[in-house]
Specification:
The chain has six helices and no strands. The protein is mostly helical. It has two domains: 69 residues; 63 residues. It is flat.
Length: 141
């Protein structure tokens, strides 16, 4: 009988999860800030939208932030569902990057290329052998 230790979560996978938590918290805080300041005339003038648009945007940010938090925490706990959700999102980033590469010219193309490269890096981290072992060990537990 083998007494091999269960695979551990690698640094890069942990980094993705921590960055996700930070993004989620910042999105929630930003949403709360938008809702709290939606009646500020200076803000409305600077962004050229109404108070109701600011309130809806704030609400959207809170929802997206909460989802980001849940998925990031799930990723850190070894959830295959969280891993799948992040993979699908990265595929959308690749599609958006390809669109920017094809439809735009000049410096915008660099933005599209950067989006594609970051998405490919995240996918590589999610599906490299060490990550595979970690997620498999978590699904068996």
């Amino acid at each position: 009988m083998s007494t091999a230790a269960a695979p551990t979560r690698g640094f890069l996978l942990t980094l993705i999860g921590v960055i996700g938590i930070i993004q989620g918290v910042l999105a929630v805080l930003g949403g709360i800030g938008l809702i709290a300041e939606r009646n500020d005339a200076g803000l409305q003038r600077n962004v050229d939208v109404s108070d109701s648009t600011l309130a809806w945007t704030g609400t959207y940010l809170i929802i997206i932030g909460a989802i980001t938090l849940v998925v990031a925490i799930g990723l850190l706990r070894g959830s295959s569902v969280a891993r799948f959700i992040i993979a699908v999102i990265e595929l959308f980033h690749i599609g958006g990057g390809l669109y920017v590469l094809i439809a735009h010219d000049g410096t915008e193309r660099w933005d599209g290329l950067a989006a594609i490269l970051v998405a490919l890096l995240v996918l590589w981290i999610l599906f490299r052998a060490r990550s595979e072992d970690y997620f498999e060990s978590r699904s068996l537990a």
